[in-house]
Design a protein that fits this description.
The complex is a heterodimer of chains A (281) and B (322). By secondary structure, chain A is mainly alpha-helical. Chain A is built from 14 helices and no strands. Classes of the chains: A mainly alpha (281), B mainly alpha (322).
Chain lengths: 281, 322
């Protein structure tokens, strides 16, 4: 009897989980199918969403319509600069927070959480004025400005939690050996925080790659536009061709999905430790 | 411990020497300690500068601008409460506020329930669970613009997959985004799938509950519903509250991209939300002062909502975790 029950339970679990999977994968699936349909093909009926022939040339046509290669390159430049800068600055801040005495640490923690809770929309407008004053409007520097605060206080917190899990004796013995803060960060803390680095790296890439509002507000020259703004232009051309729009959406999404699949392990390992620092300390 | 001059004549030279050495050691230790502390602050410096320039200064400016008239060219002029007076008489502003509130009322409870249900389903390690979790996270990683375009396609009244499926079951369909009655609920529906962040946090929270608690509940003969109500729920309350608060903030502002791309705020202002109106007021009409005043209203409004949630759910539940 108990054997039967556990088999049923497992079956129900997988059935429910599979339903969830279908529902949550549907938007991406539909977009890919739509992107491969020949433009102007007859209407699909009901569930016959799969087209007769896959029109991969839709993806190439995008590059004829708009300088998509330029947008792609710009997006890659921004993301490629943002990831290492964010990892360095966020981990420095997280390391300092983990090492400073308790009073200071709690003040910084509270500050980071308050900043994290700050709605971005509350800052658009006046951040524009500040960046304008700094003569950064219409430069990549305006898009990259958030790296100076570690891109997001969350990333600082992820590193903080990760560094708090490093046993105190390890750091103490390094200090007795006469290592300075920078050397301990570089040689001891960072090598022990690989999952955190992976998670922050992926999340940072996604943040800058997907960023639509900052380029919309802070860029003017078309030659500097990134992919999200390029997609918006594609939409405004009003092509009435869904295949091309969905191809654009797929190009925008593919790198992010690939990255998440590759980094999944690190991501979940790190997520399991979130907020867990104090318990072991 | 041993203060220098008070020792007797009989104190040997060796003793004195050891005192000097330990004193010297203490000095270098202190020196090292200060240097270490200083270099920690140095590592913190870029972050603090970034927060100052990108958050603190803009927030202060925003506060000041809300009481001024400023077009971005001539210097700002003190305006007192003029901006707020104008807003209170502005139909569009009221419309956008009501729309934003409606959107929050639709999305936050539903998103929280879905997040919780999925986290409960998928928090244990089982075969294949990683794949399922990845699927739940998938819509969240789709960039905002692409996500809005995809939903524009899904909700297309003629060719869209949703319409095709509904009509295959001969269920009623609508011109979702063209009809003022369905446009806002349609945007809210699309927002229900991007819950990955809360999902990850809640799974982390559930995994923090020691397995013995469940065992104890099982020994006491608690059914799965009682176990949930008496063990799981109180223990993940802090995480849940964190998610709800974060979700209120995020949902209030994440209306911008979908509204701009999918509806442009229409039809007949049915999906005009505060962030979109702020954008139009400040960047299309160059009324930075009015935009800042709206921003302040949005900020305070979200703050009030969070305070209400906090009171309703009774603080942090228990104060052992987080």
């Amino acid at each position: 009897m108990p054997f039967d029950r556990s088999v049923w339970r497992r079956a129900w679990f997988h059935l429910a989980a599979l339903c969830v999977t279908f529902v949550f994968a549907a938007p991406a699936f539909w977009a890919i199918i739509a992107s491969l349909r020949p433009p102007g093909a007859p209407l699909p009926s009901a569930f016959a969403q799969l087209p007769d022939s896959f029109e991969w040339s839709n993806y190439l046509r995008l590059f004829d319509l708009l300088p998509f290669e330029r947008y792609l390159l710009n997006s890659m430049i921004v993301a490629a600069l943002a990831v290492p800068l964010t990892v360095i600055i966020a981990s420095w801040a997280g390391f300092a927070m983990a090492q400073l005495p308790e009073g200071m640490r709690n003040a910084l923690l509270a500050g980071a959480i308050i900043v994290r809770m700050m709605p971005v929309t509350a800052l658009w407008l006046t951040r524009f004025l500040v960046l304008n004053e700094l003569r950064l409007i219409d430069t990549y520097a305006a898009l990259l400005a958030p790296v100076w605060m570690g891109s997001s206080p969350l990333f600082v917190l992820i590193f903080y939690w990760s560094f708090r899990r490093v046993p105190t004796e390890v750091i103490e013995s390094a200090r007795l050996d006469g290592l300075g803060a920078f050397a301990i960060w570089a040689r001891i803390a960072m090598p022990l925080a690989r999952p955190a680095t992976g998670a922050v790296g992926v999340l940072t890439f996604v943040q800058y790659w997907s960023d639509f509002i900052n380029p919309l507000l802070y860029l003017k020259s078309e030659s500097r536009y990134t992919l999200p703004v390029g997609l918006r232009i594609l939409q405004q051309m009003d092509l009435t061709s869904w295949s091309l729009l969905m191809a654009g959406a797929a190009i925008m999404t593919a790198p992010v999905i690939v990255l998440f699949i590759v980094a999944q392990r690190a991501f979940w390992i790190e997520a399991q430790g979130w907020g867990g620092g104090r318990k072991k300390a | 411990m041993v203060s220098g001059g008070q020792s007797d004549d009989s104190s040997s030279a060796a003793d004195e020497k050891s005192i000097i050495v330990s004193h010297h050691k203490k000095l270098t230790a202190m020196h090292y300690q200060t240097r270490y502390r200083l270099s920690l602050y140095l590592l913190l410096l870029p972050f603090l500068t970034g927060v100052l320039v990108l958050v603190v200064v803009p927030a202060g400016l925003s506060f000041a601008l809300a009481f001024s008239a400023y077009d971005g060219l001539s210097p700002p002029v003190w305006h007192g409460l003029q901006n707020y007076r104008r807003l209170s008489a502005d139909d569009l502003f009221w419309r956008a506020s009501v729309n934003s509130l409606t959107f929050l009322a639709l999305t936050v409870p539903l998103r929280t329930l879905i997040t919780m249900g999925l986290a409960l389903l998928l928090h244990r390690s089982r075969r294949g669970v990683r794949l399922y979790r990845a699927a739940v996270y998938l819509p969240t990683v789709i960039p905002g613009v692409a996500y809005a375009l995809i939903w524009l396609w899904i909700l297309n009244p003629v060719y869209g997959p949703l319409t095709l499926i509904l009509s295959a079951f001969s269920l009623p369909t609508a011109a979702w985004l063209v009809d003022p009655r369905t446009a806002l609920p349609a945007l809210a529906f699309a927002a229900l799938f991007q819950i990955g962040e809360g999902f990850v946090v809640l799974i982390a929270g559930l995994r923090h509950i020691p397995e013995e608690y469940y065992d104890a509940a099982a020994i006491d003969g608690a059914g799965s519903l009682a176990t949930f109500r008496l063990v799981t729920l109180p223990l993940i309350m802090p995480w849940l509250l964190l998610i709800i608060i974060r979700d209120t903030i995020v949902s209030a502002q994440n209306t911008f991209t979908p509204a701009l791309i999918m509806t442009g705020g229409g039809p007949y202002y049915a999906t005009l939300f505060l962030p979109l109106l702020i954008y139009q007021t400040a960047f299309d009409r160059f009324r930075f002062g009015e935009g800042a005043a709206m921003t302040a209203v949005l900020f305070v409004g979200v703050g009030v909502l969070i305070a209400l949630v906090w009171r309703a759910l009774g603080g942090w539940g228990y104060d052992d975790a987080v």
